[in-house]
Amino acid sequence: MPEPTQKQIAIIALVLLGFVLLVYLLLPSPVQVQTARVGYAPMQVIVEEEGETRVKDYYTISSPVAATIRRIHLEAGDRVRQGQPLVFLEAPRASILDVRARDEAAAGVQAAEARLEQAREQARSAQAAADLAATELARTKALFESRAVSRQTLDEVRAAASQADADLEAAQAGVATARAELESARAALRSVSEGEGDTGVQDILRSPVTGGVLAVHRRSEGFVNVGEPLLDVGDIDRLEVWTDVLSQDAFGIRPGSRVLFDRWGGDATLEGVVDRIEPQAATVVSALGVEEQRVQVIANIISPKNAWTGLGSGYRVLSRFVIWEDDRVLQVPAGALFRVQDGWAAFVVENGKAVRKPVGTGQRSGLAFQVLYGLNEGDVVIVHPDDSIKEGLRVSPQED
Questions:
Q1: What's the pTM?
Q2: Is the alpha carbon torsion for 155, 160, 166, 172 positive or negative?
Q3: Helix or strand or coil: residue 17?
Q4: Per residue in 89-146, pLDDT tens?
Q5: What is the distance between the alpha carbons of residues 207 and 57, in angstroms, rounded to a whole number?
Q6: Residues 263, 317 contacting (CB under 8 angstroms)
Q7: Which helix (H) or strand (E) holds 77?
Q8: In this structure, how many other beta carbons lie within 10 angstroms of the beta carbon of residue 121?
């Protein structure tokens, strides 16, 4: 058979080239897909919630007695030192109805004395009854040992003796109460009788801490009741942050956990550490009307004071609790993963085709997952694959 000539070889080559070109033109064009690369990067798992700053050492200065106070000249924001006088107390000013007040106080003393005498009489009667019951119990025990009375009789006598002892204790408590009431009535009589015209300083309320005045509740001179709040003071340089956290998120937070504070008004991110987590959760209704179980997490700011100068009590901050972190973690975008029956999977671009691979995931932070197995550094994965992406499909990557 004669060998083909060069012209015949050229014709055959052109035919084959045309056939290949025709097949290529008939093939479906590659699908354009968005892709990203799997790689190592730092990762943090963070819980974010809004918190509120509070003074760590907060004190409310209130009047321990009913008294007249002098005018308070301090203003909110003023600095105070420990032991500095804050409020001057004077004896209450004499009432217009002094005579009637003394008569009422004297009558109160007489009534208290009568109640004390009555309580003492009841105590004497209870003592006599208790002594009699004790004697009867001793006699009954002797009769029971000689089998002259039954066990039931002994139990009845013992119960009566116990009741007599209880009545005696109650009567003695009544005497103590009546004695205290008498002392209180006598003190009230002395206050009315001896306090007229006394406007000297009786007591001075001093600052328990070096810090600043946080609020002034009462400024003008005048009468104040027992326990009435007058001033709030505290050390503004010692702040802590209280944050309401969902109970399921608080489960992963521990004392000593790292906290980052943002959106507090300054440019820098402040460092903090969790001090304690309250053990009791509370039910809170969210803005959407959903009931949530929330826990208070209290954290201390550990950044230098000059980094957060101007931050005060009651300020809003964004608390970012670091649950887990690592400086070098193999990560894949969350949008590249999709659910399969036994876990997660992703489409990897290999030789221009989509190849589905199962992926083992670990921690998640924002829009990225930690890769435990299934993907390697440098793999190109399809981000947000739709239903048209199938195994072996030709794709044209467009990497972000």
A1: 0.59
A2: negative
A3: helix
A4: 887 765 554 667 777 778 888 888 888 889 889 889 989 888 998 898 888 888 888 8
A5: 12
A6: yes
A7: none
A8: 12
